[in-house]
Amino acid sequence: MMKILLAEDEPPILRDLKFQIEQASDLFCVCASAYNGKQAMEYLDDPTLNPDVLITDIQMPLVNGLELIRYAKSKHPSITCIILTGYGEFSYAQEALRMGVSDYLLKPVDEDCLRKLLTKIYHEKYSQKIQDQFPYNQVHPSGTASIYPRFYATALIGFGMIPMYESTTYTFSPYLEATEFLEQTLQELLTEKDTFWIINGKSSGEKAIIFHLHFREPERIRLFFEQFFEKIRKKSTTTTMAVDVEVEDINETGSSFLQLRHFLVERIVLEQCQLLFLSKTFPEKNPVELRILTEEIHNLANIFSTKQLSLFQHSLKAFLNHMQQMRLPQNQLFKCIYDLLNSCALCFTELGYSLNCMECANDTLTFSETYEQLFSNLSSVFEDIFESLLSRQNNEIRKDHISLMLDLYIKNNFTQPVNTQIMADKFGFSPAYLSKIFREYKNMSPMEYIVFLRIEKAKELFLQSPGILIKDVSTAIGYEDPHYFSKVFKKLTGLSPKQFLYQQNCIITK
After folding, report:
1. Are the C-beta atoms of 505 and 462 separated by less than 8 Å?
2. 85/325 Cα distance (integer angstroms)
3. CB 111 within 8 A of CB 20
4. Cross-strand pairs, 159
5. CA dist., res. 119 & res. 145, Å (int)
6. pTM for the complete prediction?
7. Residues 389-396: contacts with CB within 8 Å, 24+ apart?
8. Distance, C-alpha 372 to centroid of its chain
9. C-alpha gyration radius of the chain
10. Is 152 helix (H, G, I), strand (E, B) or coil?
11. What is the pLDDT of residues 277-333, one digit of tens each?
């Protein structure tokens, strides 16, 4: 609920304004009414009121509206101020706007204008609350705001597999096309009574959505999400949407998404599309089948140790077919891949070969939308291990050559919309293999390297032209959204672009 403090010295206007606000929506509440600026200051200092919005007349006794606004902004920076003004007070209105007043209302106050203005402010404040819960993610509001009674629901969509651990590779790869597609789809299904916010997830294939719906009948809710899911499932071979319809407050959305992500990881199945509603029960594991998989991993490692690559690949294919038939969820599939990589790598530790099995398993699974792609990614990794063991020197020269070509390509194209899949297709390798050899070469993934080069270029542009606009730098290095660029910049440098510029200016003036 949005709490509003009114300050107006004419009782009839004050009563009429209070009535209009309370009739507009039950989401708006007049927490106090003051007949002069001094009384309004006292209400502002009352910790039990804590208003979100101040609506004040300009000409009032004891303390006028401009002084009240100045006081409100100094003591309560987050408060939104609106002024009531007549046609003869335009010069005062201009001064108030320079002081940070959000908007103004002309007397006599039009009921429709008041409702639209309060609805807009309500939408902005709740969008900010959502943004505060996701400080490293871009939030896309629906563009419409409603004041009808409603409840919250959250949904997390996985287009493909979800990375098992967070890294720069996945954090800074927003799919703007998916955002536009989701927004268009939701606008077709929902009405002006509903509001939604689309949030970039932890990886490029994740989208989080907060819904503020005007209906709450269980049958209607399920029907809406079924219709929505039916439209989006064509975006990926593995599209999984998890929904939480028991979110009582906007401040609970952050924890809701954490639960949904954990829920998804335990239920996403490669090559399967699923609509899931959040449940506190976990899928049961079949100990017999899991023990059989463990034995198969052990046998695969033994075959690989004999250096019979063709036999190993044939056995690997059968192993993946078995997991496909079992419909293993992502977390168990990841564990099997990790255990297999780790078991095979252990066979050759005495020869000095090292492999980061966690990163390799994560990349292999994340870059796969089908079991065929998973086999291709895994095969390329094992072929590299095999070739390294048979002809270590020649293989290292070949990998260095590939890495140098990839390095040069990235340096020439890092401001363009490139990703690991695009580079893998260009050079004719699997994404997992490309990521693996580049990590060995640069100690970072290709996408992490792209982000690094972009931020270094941004710092260079800021230093060359201190007066340059942040949005121009953002566009120059490949980020369409300057707000998103600022978050990436701060995460990697510890400073926002403005703080970076200020720090450099201080160094220059010393």
Report:
1. no
2. 71
3. yes
4. 239
5. 6
6. 0.67
7. 389/307, 389/348, 389/351, 389/353, 390/307
8. 29
9. 29
10. strand
11. 998 665 666 676 778 889 999 999 999 888 788 899 999 999 999 999 999 999 999
